[in-house]
Amino acid sequence: VTGPPGPLVVRGGEVLDERGRRRADVLVVDGVVRDVGPDVGRAPGSATVLDAGGCVVAPGLVDLHTHLREPGNEEAETVETGGRAAALGGYTAVVAMPNTDPPIDSAAVAREVLALGRHAPVEVAVAGAITVGRAGERLAPMAELAALGIRLFTDDGTGVQDGSLMRRALDYAKGLGVVLAQHAEDRQLSAGGVMHEGAWSSRLGLPGVPAAAEEAMVARDVALVGLTGAPLHLLHLSTAGSVAIVRRAKAEGLPVTAEVAPHHLALTDASCAGYDPVFKVSPPLRTEADAAALRAALMDGTVDAIATDHAPHLPELKDVPFDEAPPGMLGLETALAVAVAVVGLERAFAAMSWLPARIAGMAPRHGGPVAVGAAANLCVLDPAARWTVDPAALASRSRNTPFGGWELTGRVRHTVLGGEAVVVDGEARR
Ligand code: DOR
After folding, report:
1. What angle do CA 195, 184, 325 make, to 5 degrees?
2. Active-site residue set
3. What's the CA-to-centroid distance between 48 and ligand 1, angstroms?
4. Whole-number pLDDT of residue 1
5. Edge-first strand listing for the sheet containing 420-424
6. Calpha distance 31→39 (Å, rounded)
7. Could you tell me the distance, in angstroms and rounded to a whole number, from the CA of residue 160 to the centre of ligand 1?
């Protein structure tokens, strides 16, 4: 890092943020938006010019759910490679999940990941574990982690099974002013399952995970939010029943937020028909009716955010029989195009930028309106660019995208992080 980046102009695009859409150039000086307008004429001669013709210029995306695999599984991903994938996907901030090895259940490990993140081309926030070792038995030192600025806590990969422990965690989180994020899965109900329990699992002869495994914990946790008054974020919801529960909870005024993953919006359990483990994920791909309910819940605001659950796994681990493969799929480099295809530009940016930025406690530095004085964290998307997903060409260290070979419309042209162009013309600069 060599001091503040020089001035930069994003020229010829259409700004899209929470305030709406308008044709405007954006002048950035010292990492801050200095001018926004139909023609920022006063750009210094030395300014870098980013061509945004035909593009949407929006606040950078914020991913609430990224597995960066460091420490412990650097062969699958690192903060650096995952950070690069994020920048290429239009993200300026990601929340790194704590199911690393060792897990992020102590200040020492959190500090290590935060330090690695300072060199990444994206801001790396960290989620802390709710319980020690993510084992679900006793609370992690949440106060110590919160003191490092950690705002989200989750045992993701698994849910907190013990309701009374979850109640205590919620009480504690409320006192600390942090938010718990639940991977809603009743492990007794999901035990042995490798895909959604339904017509396809019967036909394929694979053991299923019933929708109720998720919905039972969502319902329990909503009840606990009512009991404690603590805010709760629900990770990667996958069923119609789950979003119905959240819709009711929000109508009652409970402080519940929810995210869905692009793969649950765009794919169904029918994808598992070829027994290809690239389609194995937790929670599993559900039915078309579930996917339709998730899309409707995004459109009516029941679901706040689209989060990737970017989960890199090494080819040698994934290329095994379906029931033996670890669950998880890549997401960072394809999420925006998939989301725009499913819910449209405006809803996609709301659900991937300003709404998750608030949940992560990163607004308005991320997700805030593109206005004079704002931090220059920007995503420049060419919504008409068509491209074919080539797993081998991804910046991620892993290859397990379920969208390999798909032709997508919409590609990130530039990403600006704190005034620095970290992606230019679709190429990572660092
Ligand atoms: O599919 C998944 N993979 N779901 C999770 O909750 C964890 C993730 C992982 O870490 O691989």
Report:
1. 35
2. 309
3. 40
4. 47
5. 20-23, 14-17, 56-59, 378-388, 407-417, 420-424, 427-428
6. 19
7. 15
375 alpha carbon – ligand 1 mean position (Å): 32
Question: What is the model's pLDDT at position 421?
Answer: 98
Please tell me the predicted confidence (pLDDT) of residue 39.
Answer: 84
Question: Model pTM?
Answer: 0.98
Cα–Cα dist 241/256, whole Å: 16
Helix (H) or strand (E) holding 9: strand 8-11
156 in Cβ contact with 97 (< 8 Å): yes
Q: Which protein residue's CA is at the shortest distance from atom 2 of ligand 1?
A: 328
Tell me how far apart the 2 most distant CA atoms of the chain are, in Å.
Answer: 66
8 A C-beta contact, residue 201 and residue 279: no
CA distance 363 to 177: 16
Q: Whose CA is nearest to atom 4 of ligand 1?
A: 282
Q: β-strand 32-37 against 25-29: which pairing, if any?
A: antiparallel
Angle at 172 between CA 171 and CA 177, to 5 degrees: 100
Higher confidence at residue 345 or residue 43? 345
pLDDT in tens, 286-333: 999 999 999 999 999 999 999 999 999 999 999 999 999 999 999 999
CA distance 239 to 213: 10
Q: Any idea which residue has 């920048």 for tokens?
A: 87
Residue located via tokens 């009743």: 186
Whole-angstrom distance, CA of residue 6 vs CA of residue 217: 50
pLDDT value, residue 3: 65
Contacts for 10 with CB less than 8 Å, ≥ 6 apart? 25, 26, 28, 50, 52, 57, 378, 380, 414, 416
Q: Which residue has the tokens 């794919």?
A: 267
